[in-house]
Design brief:
binds 5-S-methyl-1-O-phosphono-5-thio-D-ribulose; methionine biosynthesis; isomerase; 13 helices; amino-acid biosynthesis; 366 residues; globular; IF-M1Pi; NagB/RpiA_transferase-like; 4-stranded mixed sheet; alpha/beta
Length: 366
């Protein structure tokens, strides 16, 4: 998507430098910094420290990480070591394992001298695929927004609420939850987006930045405001992303998503989840019991990062000295609270039947 008139993806390959470039998201929305990734450690750090973040983007980054690993040493043992190393960077988003498996499956049967170029070609393909998949999510999600808009007085905006950043920054381009928003805006359907701040990392600020760059009307709200807005008829639809979707349609997403789904159900607000099929973990049924939830550092809770009065970017402590913080980064929304799943193939029910009918090839294969 565009930033100040220039089109960016969240990562891209610089052929002259023979290296991956990323947007270091830790500094957004205050500062747009591009970083070149040259070593395996830098790749791992970029994922762990959330310079790159969001399930699909983590997957795409991992594919480029495997390409670098193969350039350095294309042996079987190096490949397996790289798989283990990168798979351990973040535990919840399944796109990481999906991407690493896809690389390993392609590379394993190849002679070692072919692996480096094959891995890089695959990484490019996976990045391009991600863009197209997210574009299609937008095409399908647009129809839901159009339907809601058709029932409103002309010119009245469809009011959407989203949690976290499931935007183009979290994918290679378009985003998942934001793709229908971008498509609706571009189709001249008026929308207004309530953006949850998403403590502690405030991914909502990234969403606000994205929407602002695209000229989409939005308001940044506290994580606790959504229920109140829904009770007062100010939300027409909730749409979020997901880091892992189980075969029965439970969705694991940024902490706080579950509470939005509960409030949506209590207020008859449709709750949709947008996802590429790479986010489906066909090996898991019960998301609450089976999905590992990342526990992040306490300082993300006890401190807040932002632009300081002198213009620099820094953190301030918000708790008394010595206060312990608890920081589960994701939660699971059971399928019964999900109105529908918006995928690249269309919209389906969040159920074993719904997902299997939409992806019969994948459901059987895994
Ligand atoms: O911890 P993050 O910022 O990587 O979490 C991101 C999310 O929870 C997104 O909603 C999810 O990855 C879907 S992104 C298209």
């Amino acid at each position: 998507m565009k930033v100040n008139g220039t089109h960016y993806r969240s990562l891209w390959w610089d052929a002259d430098k023979n290296a991956l470039q990323i947007i270091d998201q830790r500094w957004l929305p205050h500062d747009f910094r591009v970083q070149q990734i040259d070593t395996l450690t830098e790749f791992a750090d970029a994922i762990v420290e959330m310079r790159v973040r969001g399930a699909p983007l983590i997957g795409a980054t991992a594919a480029y990480a495997m390409a670098l690993a193969m350039r350095l040493d294309p042996s079987d043992s190096a490949m397996n070591k790289a798989w283990e190393f990168f798979n351990a960077t973040r535990p919840t988003a399944i796109n990481l394992r999906w991407a690493l498996n896809r690389c390993r499956d392609l590379l394993r049967p190849l002679p070692t001298e072919m692996r480096a170029s094959a891995a890089l070609t695959l990484a490019h393909e996976m990045a391009d695929e991600d863009v197209e998949v997210n574009r299609m999510i937008g095409v399908h999600g647009l129809e839901i927004i159009r339907e809601i808009a058709s029932k409103k007085p002309a010119g009245e905006p469809v009011r959407l609420l989203t949690h976290c950043n499931a935007g183009w920054l979290a994918t290679v381009d378009w985003g998942t939850a934001t793709s229908p928003m971008y498509h609706a805006h571009d189709a001249d359907i008026p929308i207004h987006v309530w953006v949850d701040e998403t403590r502690p990392r405030n991914q909502g600020a990234l969403t606000s930045w994205e929407l602002g760059c695209h000229g989409i009307d939005h308001q940044y709200i506290t994580d606790n405001a959504g229920g109140h807005l829904m009770q007062h008829g100010q939300v027409d639809m909730v749409i979020t992303g997901t880091d892992r979707t189980t075969r029965r349609g439970d969705v694991c997403n940024k902490i706080g998503t579950y509470l939005k789904a509960l409030a949506a159900r209590d207020n008859n607000v449709p709750f949709y989840v947008a996802l590429p099929s790479s986010t489906i973990d066909w090996t898991v049924d019960d998301g609450v019991a089976e999905i590992p939830i990342e526990e992040r550092g306490q300082e993300e809770i006890t401190h807040v990062q932002g632009r300081l009065a002198d213009g620099s970017i820094g953190t301030v402590q918000v708790t008394p000295d010595g206060t312990a913080g608890g920081n589960p980064a994701f939660d699971v929304t059971p399928n019964r609270l999900v109105t529908g799943l918006i995928t690249e193939r269309g919209v389906c029910e969040a159920s074993p039947k719904g997902l299997a009918a939409m992806f019969p090839d994948r459901a059987e294969a895994d």
